[in-house]
Specification:
The complex is a heterodimer of chains A (432) and B (160). Chain A contains 21 helices and no strands. Chain A has helices at 3-19, 24-30, 32-37, 45-55, 62-75, 78-90, 96-111, 115-132, 137-148, 158-167, 171-200, 210-235, 241-259, 264-297, 300-309, 315-332, 335-352, 357-370, 379-387, 396-415, 418-427. The chains are: A mainly alpha (432), B mainly alpha (160). Chains A and B meet through helix 1, helix 2, helix 4, helix 5 and helix 13 of A and helix 1, helix 2 and helix 3 of B.
C-alpha cells in the first residue's frame, strides 16, 4: 500500500468515526482495522500490543500524579490564596479582576500541570466574582478559559511530559523552555484586558498597602514553592519528572493538612476522580500509538518530509507549517493523542529542516494549547462556559479577540527560536 | 433482571474503588522509591519502577472500562442530533456497534495476548507477565458487559 493511500484510509475512517460521535480513543484504533485487514504482515495483535506497550511507561505515571496534585490544590484552598496574592499584585490595574484572572492562572500553571484543572479551579472562584462586579459574562468566561491554557505551557506541564516521553526529548529542558513563552502569553492577555477595561470602564481594586501585599504573599508562598521544587529537582537531577509529580502530590496533601482543608474522605474522592480521568485520557494515548505506528509502518512521515522538502521552504517556513498543522489538529482532537499521532509525523520534518527539537516542541505545545479554547474540542472553554452558564458559541467573539495577540506570540515563537531556547541553554545546557 | 442490574452496579462501584486504590498504591510505591534513594536506612528496591508501571497499566485499562460504563470517553460533538427519532436510533446503534467491535478485539485477541504473556517473566520483580497482560481482556470483557447493560437499558427498559 502506498503511503498516501494508507494515510488517506487511516485519517478518512478516523475523521468519519469521530464526526459520528464514536469516542476518540475507540475511533483511533477502529480506523486502523481496514488498513490492518489489507496488510498481510500485520494482525489485530498489533492493536493490542501497541496499546499495551504504550501504557507500560514510567514517564506516563506523572500524568495521574500531576492531575491529582492540581485537583488537591483546588480542594485545599491553594487556589484561593493565589487569588489573594494576584489581587494584591495586579488588582489595582484597570479591569482588576481580569488581570487577577490572568495572573493567578500564571501562578497556578506553576503549581499544576493541567489546564483543565486550572480552568475548573479558577473558573469556579473568579467567573462568579467577575459577574458580581459587573463584568460582561462572555468576557469573564473567555478570559478565564484563555488564561487557563498557560497551565500546559508554564511548567510543570502534562503535555510536555507526554511530548518528551514520546519523542525522547528532555522534559527538564522543555519545562525551562516553556517559561518565557508562558509569561509572554500572560502579558499579552493582560494587555487585552487593559483595552477591554478602558473600553467598558471595568472597575479596579484599591492599591494595596505593602503590609497587605506581604500578608498575601506569605499566604500564597507555600503553594508557590511547588514549581521551585519541581524545576530545581528535575533540572539538577535530584529526581525524575515522574518522581517530581509524586512529590507535588505529597506536597499538596501536606498543604491540605496544614490548612486543615483536607480529610481522608476528600482525599479519596479526588483520588478516585483523578484515577477516572487518567483512565480515559491515557487510553487515548494507547490507541493513538497504534494509529501513529501504522502511519510509521507505511512510511507516511517520510513521504510527508519529502513532499514538504519539495517546496524548498527554509526552517521558518517549515515551523510555520508545523504550527498551522497543530493549530488545526487541536481544533478537533485532544492534545495528548494529537502529540502522539501528529507530533511523531512532524518530528522528522522538523529534524530534516534543522529545527531544534526543543523549539519544535514548544511551538507544538503552544499551538495545541490553543486548541483547549477553540471549538469544537475546546475542553477548557467547555468547562468555563458551563461554570458561567453560557452557550459556547456566544463566547467565541471574545475568545478570538483574546486569542489574536496570543497568535502573535506564537508567530514570534516560530520565527525567533531563542525565545524558547534561551533558558534551557542557560540553565541546563547538558540537555540541549 | 433487578439482580443483574444490581450486580452490574456493584461491579461498577467495586471497579471505581479498586482503580482509586491502585492509584493510591502507585503513589506509595513511587514515594518509597524516592525515599529509598535519599534516606540511607530505607533499603532501596529495584522492583518499584517496574511494579509502578504494571499498576499504571491496570489503572488505565480499568479506567477505560469505567469510562464505557459512565459514557465519559471523549466524544466530538460537531454534528448535532437529527430531528428524526429513527435517524437518532440508527446513529446511536451504530456508535454502540462500533464500541462493541472495539471491545471485542480487546477481549478476544486480548485473551490470546495474555496467553502469550503467561510464559513471559518480568525483568526485575520476576512475576509472570500474565498478571499485567490480563488487564487487556479484563478491559474488553468488562466493557462488553457494560455495553450489554446499556443496550438493555436503552431498548427493553424503555419498553417495559
Amino acid at each position: 500500500m502506498e503511503p498516501l493511500v494508507a494515510a488517506s484510509a487511516l485519517f478518512g475512517v478516523f475523521i468519519a468515526l469521530v464526526l459520528l460521535r464514536v469516542p476518540v480513543a475507540f475511533a483511533l484504533a477502529l480506523a486502523c482495522v481496514p488498513v490492518i485487514l489489507l496488510t498481510d504482515s500485520v494482525s489485530f495483535f498489533a492493536i493490542i500490543d501497541r496499546t499495551y506497550n504504550s501504557f507500560n511507561s514510567f514517564l506516563l505515571l506523572s500524568v495521574p500524579f500531576f492531575l491529582l496534585s492540581a485537583n488537591l490544590m483546588n480542594a485545599t484552598g491553594v487556589t484561593k490564596r493565589l487569588v489573594a496574592l494576584a489581587t494584591a499584585t495586579v488588582g489595582h490595574f484597570p479591569g482588576g479582576l481580569g488581570h487577577i484572572n490572568v495572573f493567578v492562572s500564571m501562578l497556578f500553571a506553576g503549581v499544576s500541570g493541567s489546564s483543565t484543572a486550572e480552568a475548573a479551579g479558577i473558573g469556579k472562584v473568579l467567573v462568579p466574582a467577575m459577574l458580581k462586579q459587573g463584568y460582561d459574562r462572555s468576557f469573564s468566561i473567555a478570559i478565564t478559559a484563555c488564561a487557563s491554557v498557560m497551565g500546559v505551557i508554564i511548567p510543570p506541564s502534562i503535555l510536555m511530559l507526554i511530548w518528551g516521553g514520546t519523542m525522547s526529548i528532555s522534559v527538564g529542558a522543555l519545562f525551562l523552555a516553556g517559561i518565557i513563552p508562558g509569561v509572554a502569553l500572560g502579558l499579552s492577555m493582560m494587555a487585552t484586558v487593559y483595552f477591554y477595561a478602558k473600553k467598558y470602564n471595568y472597575p479596579r481594586f484599591e492599591k494595596p498597602s505593602l503590609s497587605h501585599f506581604i500578608k498575601a504573599f506569605l499566604g500564597a508562598a507555600p503553594g508557590l514553592v511547588t514549581p521551585v521544587i519541581i524545576l530545581v529537582g528535575i533540572s539538577f537531577g535530584f529526581f525524575t519528572p515522574t518522581e517530581a509529580s509524586a512529590i507535588a502530590v505529597v506536597y499538596s496533601v501536606m498543604l491540605g493538612i496544614a490548612y486543615g482543608s483536607l480529610n481522608t474522605r476528600t482525599f479519596f474522592l479526588y483520588l478516585s476522580d483523578s484515577a477516572k480521568l487518567v483512565g480515559i485520557t491515557l487510553f487515548c494515548v494507547g490507541t493513538a500509538s497504534v494509529f501513529s505506528w501504522l502511519l510509521a509502518y507505511y512510511r507516511v512521515p517520510q513521504a510527508l518530509v519529502t513532499l514538504i522538502q519539495g517546496f524548498g521552504l527554509g526552517p521558518h517556513g517549515v515551523i510555520l507549517i508545523i504550527a498551522a498543522v497543530f493549530l488545526f489538529v487541536g481544533l478537533f482532537i485532544d492534545a495528548i493523542p494529537a502529540i502522539i499521532v501528529v507530533g511523531s509525523i512532524m518530528y522528522p520534518l522538523a529534524q530534516a529542516a534543522g529545527i531544534h527539537p526543543i523549539h519544535f516542541s514548544i511551538v507544538g505545545v503552544v499551538a495545541l494549547a490553543f486548541g483547549l479554547v477553540t471549538p469544537p474540542y475546546g475542553m477548557c472553554l467547555l468547562i468555563v462556559a458551563r461554570i458561567g452558564e453560557m452557550q459556547v458559541h456566544n463566547v467565541l467573539k471574545d475568545v478570538f479577540t483574546i486569542l489574536l495577540p496570543m497568535l502573535g506570540i506564537l508567530l514570534l515563537l516560530c520565527l525567533v527560536p531563542e525565545i524558547s531556547l534561551f533558558l534551557p541553554r542557560l540553565i541546563s545546557p547538558q540537555f540541549m | 433482571m433487578k439482580l443483574i442490574e444490581k450486580t452490574i452496579e456493584a461491579l461498577h462501584k467495586g471497579l471505581v474503588a479498586l482503580q482509586a486504590a491502585l492509584l493510591g498504591l502507585l503513589l506509595l510505591i513511587v514515594i518509597y522509591q524516592i525515599c529509598a534513594r535519599w534516606i540511607t536506612f530505607i533499603p532501596p528496591a529495584l522492583w518499584t519502577e517496574e511494579i509502578a508501571r504494571f499498576f499504571l497499566v491496570w489503572v488505565i485499562f480499568l479506567g477505560a472500562a469505567i469510562g464505557v460504563r459512565e459514557r465519559s470517553h471523549f466524544v466530538l460533538e460537531v454534528l448535532s442530533e437529527s430531528k428524526s427519532r429513527i435517524v437518532n436510533i440508527v446513529w446511536q446503534s451504530f456508535i454502540i456497534v462500533m464500541e462493541i467491535a472495539f471491545c471485542s478485539i480487546f477481549f478476544f485477541r486480548g485473551l490470546s495476548y495474555a496467553e502469550v504473556l503467561r510464559w513471559d517473566i518480568s525483568d526485575v520483580a520476576q512475576i509472570s507477565m500474565l498478571w499485567i497482560g490480563a488487564s487487556v481482556p479484563v478491559f474488553g470483557g468488562l466493557s462488553l458487559i457494560f455495553l450489554a447493560d446499556l443496550i438493555f437499558q436503552k431498548t427493553f427498559k424503555k419498553a417495559l
